[in-house]
Amino acid sequence: MSRKIVGMISSYPRMEQGDWLWQQTPEPLGVWKNIQMMARAEQPDFLLMYNFNQFPVLPPRKLFSLRYPLHQRRYAQGQQELQAKLKNLPPERVIFLWREPPLEEVLARTINTYDRAKPYAGYISGADDYAPQPDYMPAIWYHSNSFRELADQPPPTKVKPCSWITSGVSRTANHLRRLDFLRSVQNAPVNCDIYGLDLPPWVKAQGELKNKWHGMAPYYYNLAIENYADNSWYVSEKLWDALLAWCLPIYYGGSAADKLLPKESFLRLPSLDAQGLAYIQEVTANPDLWHERQGAIAEARQIILHELNLLPWLHKFINNHD
Predict the structure, then answer these.
(1) Do residues 82 and 210 share a domain?
(2) d(Cα 182, Cα 163) in Å, to the nearest integer?
(3) For position 70, what pLDDT does the model report?
(4) What is the CATH number of the domain that holds 190?
(5) CA distance 236 to 51
(6) Looking at the 3D structure of the chain, how many domains does it have?
(7) Domain boundary residue, one of 135, 157, 178
(8) Is the pTM of this model over 0.90?
(9) C-beta separation of 111 from 237 below 8 A
(10) Tell me: the pLDDT tens digits for 133-189?
């Protein structure tokens, strides 16, 4: 069976690295069985549009009647430039995966993105009911450790109760709700170290992390709080990262996690309020639950590495569609 090369384009910033996802394969150079992830490949066999939204748009003619021919030329040029990014592959060899939650403030834009992807991608999926193919997001994670290190090494030494890696993003009501809960955690007698990017000045944070492993592996528990918890599809790297670092996640999110992982591999944070704070205080007071749940954590880690991982997902998709 010949090896298939998978290229990638994304609208995410800083996603141009040639070794994208290579830490998620057991073999060198992004190889998973008969596929190879080479984001910048010149002539890939398949191409992944990963959270890509830079599609050319032609404004309605009635709004730009005098300049419409100019807009037509720019639109045609934009189509040519996008086809060049897609390596002129036919739609059946282009996979579109959207990994943002369907927050109310951006839902119309998300649906529009799905529609704009249709001429270019034969498979269009997102973790919401508005996508042409609703499905869970295949797992990616943000540890720099190699696949074999994650798969084979025993639990790291745990020395502290709990951590939370978050950000100061405040674009939506859900983001603001999370920040309010962060303030509550900060002001409560909760032994939890905070790490993250662009956090408000009132947060007593430990700073940013180049490798999330360093802010998770030494901790028994990790707060894994999604920006969206209102459907049965959405679950993000917040949960995968915590489990792969051998933490017992205290998870706030939708029901997708219950279908994908062993039920004892994470704890359910009941709410982002005083009840939730009391739960965190009770759990993190000692490492007993972490010790009790090590078997479930170990099982969940193997599921993430070998089944939910984006690389085996691509392998299965390509072998079913080639």
Answers:
(1) no
(2) 12
(3) 76
(4) 3.40.50.11660
(5) 14
(6) 2
(7) 135
(8) yes
(9) no
(10) 999 999 999 999 999 999 999 999 999 999 999 999 989 999 999 999 999 999 999
Has residue 313 been placed in a domain?
no
List the structure tokens of 150: 């994650």
Question: Does residue 185 share a domain with residue 95?
Answer: no
Q: Are 152 and 129 members of one domain?
A: no
pLDDT tens for residues 87-133?
999 999 999 999 999 999 999 999 999 999 999 999 999 999 999 99
Q: With beta carbons less than 8 A apart as the criterion, state whether 114 and 132 touch.
A: yes
125: its two tokens: 């999926």
Containing structural domain, residue 167: 147-307
Contacts of 246 (CB under 8 A, 6+ apart): 155, 156, 158, 217, 297, 301
pLDDT, tens only, 211-226: 999 999 999 999 999 9
Q: Where are the beta strands (DSSP E) in the chain?
A: 4-10, 31-32, 35-37, 46-50, 94-98, 123-126, 133-134, 160-167, 192-197, 219-225, 248-252, 267-268
The structure tokens listed for 29 are 């150079």
Same domain, 129 and 8: yes
Q: Distance of alpha carbon 253 from its chain centroid, rounded?
A: 13
